[in-house]
Amino acid sequence: QSALTQPASVSGSPGQSITISCTGTSSDVGSYNLVSWYQLHPGKAPKLMIYDNTKRPSGVSNRFSGSKSGNTASLTISGLQAEDEADYYCCSYAGSSTLVFGGGTELTVV
Amino acid sequence: QVQLVQSGAEVKKPGASVKVSCKASGYTFTDYYMHWVRQAPGQGLEWMGWINPNNGGTKYAQNFQGWVTMTRDTSISTAYMELSRLTSDDTAVYYCARDFGGYDFWSGYFDYWGQGTLVTVSS
Protein backbone atom coordinates (compact mmCIF):
# COMPACT_ATOMS: atom_id res chain seq x y z
CA GLN A 1 0.00 0.00 0.00
CA SER A 2 1.66 3.23 -1.12
CA ALA A 3 1.27 6.42 0.85
CA LEU A 4 -1.04 9.07 -0.52
CA THR A 5 0.74 12.02 -2.14
CA GLN A 6 0.69 15.40 -0.44
CA PRO A 7 2.81 18.49 -1.07
CA ALA A 8 5.65 18.65 1.40
CA SER A 9 4.87 22.20 2.36
CA VAL A 10 2.45 25.05 1.76
CA SER A 11 2.41 28.55 3.12
CA GLY A 12 0.04 31.45 3.40
CA SER A 13 -0.45 34.77 5.10
CA PRO A 14 -2.93 35.44 7.88
CA GLY A 15 -6.41 35.86 6.48
CA GLN A 16 -5.66 34.06 3.25
CA SER A 17 -6.95 30.67 2.15
CA ILE A 18 -4.80 27.67 1.36
CA THR A 19 -5.55 24.25 -0.05
CA ILE A 20 -3.66 21.03 0.60
CA SER A 21 -4.10 18.24 -1.89
CA CYS A 22 -4.01 14.52 -1.24
CA THR A 23 -3.71 12.28 -4.27
CA GLY A 24 -4.35 8.57 -4.13
CA THR A 25 -5.53 5.96 -6.56
CA SER A 26 -8.70 4.25 -7.66
CA SER A 27 -8.02 1.70 -4.90
CA ASP A 28 -8.32 4.19 -2.08
CA VAL A 29 -9.30 7.87 -2.41
CA GLY A 30 -11.04 7.34 -5.74
CA SER A 31 -13.19 4.45 -4.59
CA TYR A 32 -14.46 5.61 -1.22
CA ASN A 33 -15.82 8.76 0.34
CA LEU A 34 -13.84 8.04 3.48
CA VAL A 35 -11.02 10.56 3.58
CA SER A 36 -10.01 12.23 6.81
CA TRP A 37 -7.57 14.97 7.71
CA TYR A 38 -5.48 15.34 10.87
CA GLN A 39 -3.68 18.33 12.30
CA LEU A 40 -0.43 17.72 14.16
CA HIS A 41 1.14 20.34 16.38
CA PRO A 42 4.56 19.48 17.83
CA GLY A 43 4.23 17.78 21.16
CA LYS A 44 0.46 17.48 20.95
CA ALA A 45 -1.83 14.63 20.01
CA PRO A 46 -3.07 14.64 16.43
CA LYS A 47 -6.51 16.17 15.97
CA LEU A 48 -9.21 14.98 13.60
CA MET A 49 -10.26 17.94 11.44
CA ILE A 50 -12.30 16.39 8.64
CA TYR A 51 -13.88 12.97 8.10
CA ASP A 52 -16.06 11.40 5.41
CA ASN A 53 -14.34 13.78 2.95
CA THR A 54 -16.28 16.84 4.06
CA LYS A 55 -17.59 16.53 7.63
CA ARG A 56 -16.22 18.43 10.60
CA PRO A 57 -16.20 16.92 14.08
CA SER A 58 -17.82 18.94 16.80
CA GLY A 59 -15.55 21.77 17.89
CA VAL A 60 -13.58 22.11 14.66
CA SER A 61 -13.72 25.57 13.13
CA ASN A 62 -15.78 26.03 9.98
CA ARG A 63 -12.69 27.62 8.46
CA PHE A 64 -11.65 24.05 7.70
CA SER A 65 -13.37 22.31 4.82
CA GLY A 66 -12.79 19.19 2.78
CA SER A 67 -13.60 18.07 -0.71
CA LYS A 68 -12.84 15.28 -3.15
CA SER A 69 -12.68 14.92 -6.88
CA GLY A 70 -11.67 11.67 -8.47
CA ASN A 71 -8.50 10.35 -6.87
CA THR A 72 -7.68 13.64 -5.14
CA ALA A 73 -8.98 14.95 -1.85
CA SER A 74 -8.35 18.47 -0.62
CA LEU A 75 -8.31 20.35 2.65
CA THR A 76 -8.99 24.08 2.49
CA ILE A 77 -8.30 26.42 5.37
CA SER A 78 -9.82 29.85 4.99
CA GLY A 79 -9.06 32.94 7.05
CA LEU A 80 -5.64 31.53 7.90
CA GLN A 81 -4.53 32.09 11.49
CA ALA A 82 -1.16 31.71 13.16
CA GLU A 83 -2.50 28.81 15.22
CA ASP A 84 -3.17 26.87 12.01
CA GLU A 85 0.55 26.43 11.50
CA ALA A 86 1.04 22.68 11.85
CA ASP A 87 1.52 19.48 9.90
CA TYR A 88 -1.52 18.08 8.13
CA TYR A 89 -2.08 14.48 7.10
CA CYS A 90 -4.76 12.98 4.96
CA CYS A 91 -5.89 9.41 5.48
CA SER A 92 -8.08 7.24 3.26
CA TYR A 93 -9.91 3.97 3.53
CA ALA A 94 -8.15 1.50 1.23
CA GLY A 95 -10.53 -1.44 1.31
CA SER A 96 -10.71 -4.53 3.53
CA SER A 97 -10.80 -2.41 6.70
CA THR A 98 -7.37 -0.93 6.01
CA LEU A 99 -6.19 2.66 5.92
CA VAL A 100 -3.41 4.60 4.27
CA PHE A 101 -1.94 7.97 5.24
CA GLY A 102 -0.52 10.70 3.12
CA GLY A 103 3.06 11.79 3.51
CA GLY A 104 2.09 14.93 5.38
CA THR A 105 2.18 18.65 4.59
CA GLU A 106 3.86 21.32 6.66
CA LEU A 107 1.77 24.49 6.74
CA THR A 108 3.59 27.71 7.45
CA VAL A 109 1.70 30.89 8.24
CA VAL A 110 4.00 33.73 7.22
CA GLN B 1 -12.74 12.23 30.12
CA VAL B 2 -11.28 9.85 27.58
CA GLN B 3 -7.61 9.11 28.13
CA LEU B 4 -5.17 6.77 26.45
CA VAL B 5 -1.97 6.40 28.45
CA GLN B 6 0.90 4.55 26.82
CA SER B 7 3.91 2.86 28.31
CA GLY B 8 7.27 4.55 28.47
CA ALA B 9 10.11 4.83 26.00
CA GLU B 10 12.03 1.72 25.05
CA VAL B 11 15.50 1.05 23.71
CA LYS B 12 15.93 -2.25 21.94
CA LYS B 13 18.66 -4.04 20.05
CA PRO B 14 18.17 -5.16 16.46
CA GLY B 15 16.38 -8.48 16.29
CA ALA B 16 14.59 -7.98 19.58
CA SER B 17 10.87 -7.46 20.15
CA VAL B 18 9.01 -4.62 21.83
CA LYS B 19 5.58 -4.54 23.41
CA VAL B 20 3.85 -1.20 23.88
CA SER B 21 0.78 -0.84 26.08
CA CYS B 22 -2.11 1.60 25.87
CA LYS B 23 -4.37 1.90 28.90
CA ALA B 24 -7.79 3.36 28.22
CA SER B 25 -10.02 5.19 30.65
CA GLY B 26 -13.10 7.38 30.58
CA TYR B 27 -15.14 5.13 28.31
CA THR B 28 -16.14 1.50 27.82
CA PHE B 29 -12.99 -0.08 26.43
CA THR B 30 -14.77 -2.84 24.52
CA ASP B 31 -17.04 -0.43 22.66
CA TYR B 32 -14.37 1.14 20.46
CA TYR B 33 -11.83 -0.29 18.06
CA MET B 34 -8.22 0.68 18.74
CA HIS B 35 -5.70 1.50 16.03
CA TRP B 36 -1.92 1.73 16.11
CA VAL B 37 -0.01 4.33 14.12
CA ARG B 38 3.69 5.09 14.04
CA GLN B 39 5.84 8.01 13.00
CA ALA B 40 9.51 7.56 12.30
CA PRO B 41 11.84 10.55 12.83
CA GLY B 42 11.24 13.13 10.13
CA GLN B 43 8.72 10.87 8.45
CA GLY B 44 4.96 10.77 8.09
CA LEU B 45 2.30 8.82 9.89
CA GLU B 46 2.00 5.14 9.08
CA TRP B 47 -1.09 3.11 9.93
CA MET B 48 -0.20 -0.29 11.41
CA GLY B 49 -3.52 -1.94 12.12
CA TRP B 50 -6.38 -2.25 14.56
CA ILE B 51 -7.83 -4.49 17.22
CA ASN B 52 -11.43 -4.94 18.21
CA PRO B 53 -11.25 -5.00 22.01
CA ASN B 54 -14.65 -6.66 22.18
CA ASN B 55 -13.63 -9.91 20.50
CA GLY B 56 -9.89 -9.57 19.94
CA GLY B 57 -10.25 -9.46 16.17
CA THR B 58 -7.38 -7.77 14.36
CA LYS B 59 -6.41 -6.37 10.99
CA TYR B 60 -2.84 -5.50 10.13
CA ALA B 61 -1.46 -3.33 7.39
CA GLN B 62 0.19 -5.38 4.68
CA ASN B 63 3.60 -3.94 5.57
CA PHE B 64 3.33 -5.31 9.10
CA GLN B 65 1.76 -8.69 8.56
CA GLY B 66 3.83 -11.44 10.10
CA TRP B 67 5.72 -9.27 12.56
CA VAL B 68 3.16 -7.20 14.46
CA THR B 69 0.73 -8.61 17.01
CA MET B 70 -2.06 -6.62 18.61
CA THR B 71 -3.75 -7.94 21.72
CA ARG B 72 -5.84 -6.64 24.56
CA ASP B 73 -6.67 -7.33 28.19
CA THR B 74 -10.23 -6.25 28.82
CA SER B 75 -9.88 -6.72 32.59
CA ILE B 76 -7.53 -3.74 32.72
CA SER B 77 -8.79 -1.86 29.63
CA THR B 78 -5.42 -2.10 27.94
CA ALA B 79 -4.40 -2.68 24.36
CA TYR B 80 -0.96 -3.93 23.35
CA MET B 81 1.13 -3.76 20.21
CA GLU B 82 4.11 -6.06 19.88
CA LEU B 83 6.61 -5.70 17.07
CA SER B 84 9.20 -8.40 16.51
CA ARG B 85 12.52 -8.69 14.64
CA LEU B 86 13.21 -5.02 15.13
CA THR B 87 15.54 -3.12 12.84
CA SER B 88 16.75 0.46 12.92
CA ASP B 89 13.92 1.30 10.53
CA ASP B 90 11.49 0.60 13.36
CA THR B 91 12.80 3.50 15.40
CA ALA B 92 9.68 5.62 15.73
CA VAL B 93 7.04 7.02 17.99
CA TYR B 94 4.18 4.56 18.28
CA TYR B 95 0.67 5.79 18.99
CA CYS B 96 -2.53 4.08 19.94
CA ALA B 97 -5.62 5.87 18.68
CA ARG B 98 -9.26 5.20 19.44
CA ASP B 99 -11.61 4.66 16.53
CA PHE B 100 -14.25 7.37 16.17
CA GLY B 101 -17.08 4.91 15.58
CA GLY B 102 -18.07 3.38 18.89
CA TYR B 103 -20.48 0.65 19.90
CA ASP B 104 -18.54 -1.93 17.90
CA PHE B 105 -18.73 0.19 14.73
CA TRP B 106 -15.52 0.65 12.76
CA SER B 107 -15.17 4.09 11.22
CA GLY B 108 -11.50 4.28 10.28
CA TYR B 109 -11.13 7.67 11.95
CA PHE B 110 -9.29 8.47 15.17
CA ASP B 111 -10.74 10.74 17.80
CA TYR B 112 -8.41 10.20 20.77
CA TRP B 113 -4.71 9.43 20.73
CA GLY B 114 -2.22 8.25 23.27
CA GLN B 115 0.78 10.40 24.09
CA GLY B 116 3.07 8.24 21.99
CA THR B 117 5.85 5.82 22.91
CA LEU B 118 9.33 6.30 21.49
CA VAL B 119 10.95 3.04 20.51
CA THR B 120 14.61 3.30 19.63
CA VAL B 121 16.34 0.39 17.94
CA SER B 122 20.08 0.60 18.23
CA SER B 123 22.98 -1.76 18.66
Task: Tell me about this structure.
The complex is a heterodimer of chains A (110) and B (123). By secondary structure, chain A is mainly β. Helix content of chain A is 0%, strand content 44%. In chain A, strands 1, 3, 4, 7, 8 and 9 form a 6-stranded mixed beta sheet that branches. In chain A, strand 5 (64-69) and strand 6 (72-77) form a beta hairpin. Chain A is globular, with a radius of gyration of 13 Å. Chain A starts with 8 loop residues before the first strand and ends with a strand. With 123 residues, chain B is an all-beta fold. In chain B, 0% of the residues lie in helices and 49% in strands. Chain B contains no helices and 11 strands. In chain B, strands 2, 4, 5, 6, 9, 10 and 11 form a 7-stranded mixed beta sheet that branches. Chain B has a 4-stranded antiparallel beta sheet with strand order 1-3-8-7, with no helix packed on it. Chain B starts with a strand and ends with a strand. The chains are: A mainly beta (110), B mainly beta (123). Chain A binds chain B through residues 1, 3, 34, 36, 38, 40, 45-46, 48, 51, 57, 89, 91, 93, 96-104, and chain B through 35, 37, 44-47, 50, 59, 61-63, 95, 97, 100, 106-115.
List keywords for this structure.
heterodimer, A: 110 residues, mainly beta, 6-stranded mixed sheet, 3-stranded antiparallel sheet, B: 123 residues, 7-stranded mixed sheet
SSE blueprint:
The complex is a heterodimer of chains A (110) and B (123).
Chain A: E1 9-12, E2 18-23, E3 35-40, E4 47-50, E5 64-69, E6 72-77, E7 86-93, E8 99-101, E9 105-109
Parallel strand pairs in A: 1-9
Antiparallel strand pairs in A: 2-6, 3-4, 3-7, 5-6, 7-8, 7-9
Chain B: E1 3-6, E2 10-12, E3 18-25, E4 34-39, E5 45-51, E6 58-60, E7 68-73, E8 78-83, E9 92-99, E10 110-113, E11 117-121
Parallel strand pairs in B: 2-11
Antiparallel strand pairs in B: 1-3, 3-8, 4-5, 4-9, 5-6, 7-8, 9-10, 9-11
